[in-house]
Amino acid sequence: MLMAMKLYNYFRSSASYRVRIALAIKNLPYDYVPVHLLKGDHKKPEFGALSADGFVPLLEDAGEHLSQSMAIMEYLDEVHPSPPLLPSDPVGRAKVRALAQSVACDIHPLNNLRVLKYLVRELKASEEAKNDWYRHWCREGLQSLDRQLQRVGVATYCYGDSPTLADCCLVPQVVNAQRFGVGIETLGRVQAVFEACMKHPAFAAADPARCPDAE
Length: 215
Description:
By secondary structure, the protein is α+β, with helices and mostly antiparallel strands. It has 2 domains: 5-83, Glutaredoxin, CATH 3.40.30; 90-202, Glutathione S-transferase Yfyf (Class Pi), Chain A, domain 2, CATH 1.20.1050.10. The chain has helices at 14-25, 45-48, 69-79, 90-111, 113-121, 127-152, 165-179, 188-198, 201-205, and strands at 5-9, 30-34, 58-61, 64-67. The chain has a 4-stranded mixed sheet, with helices on one face. Strand 3 and strand 4 form a beta hairpin. Helix 1 runs parallel beside helix 3 (69-79), helix 4 packs antiparallel against helix 6 and helix 4 runs parallel beside helix 7 (165-179). The model has no long low-confidence stretch (mean pLDDT 95).
């Protein structure tokens, strides 16, 4: 009998949120293992024994420990191909990956928790300055994403009429943007895709508020 996957996760981590969405889209069961980043759980020896980089999410499956949300989601898509997170054609896959990486590689690294902590603790930025930093880079990144989505053309989701890897990345970033007061009202395609996603049951199931460790 196959053991259930384990997802080491922090409810407010947008990278963890991406993987929860992917798991929900594919209707894959897993055990939720909370790792509280603000309390330093990721720096404890027991987590370090599992994760070389000390990051969440970390997926445990069939005795393997997989890190990095983008790699985890593509792994899930290869091992459990239906429903797919990537289009069947090479051009479509490249475009979806580009949209996803616009969030995961361009927006998120500038605004993740350890960067914001460094701004405050080491560079002595004020809370207001830290939030201004977040809003500036998040807004600029989402504006770029909106332009890319416009070029994709009319679609329910980021690319086509079913959720893809790109939607798994877009939704957590928009949720974080809202938490920091970054408006998306003028970003027509970003807002339309986000609203479509939030009507999909998989995105509702993965909501941070529904996580066991939600605060």
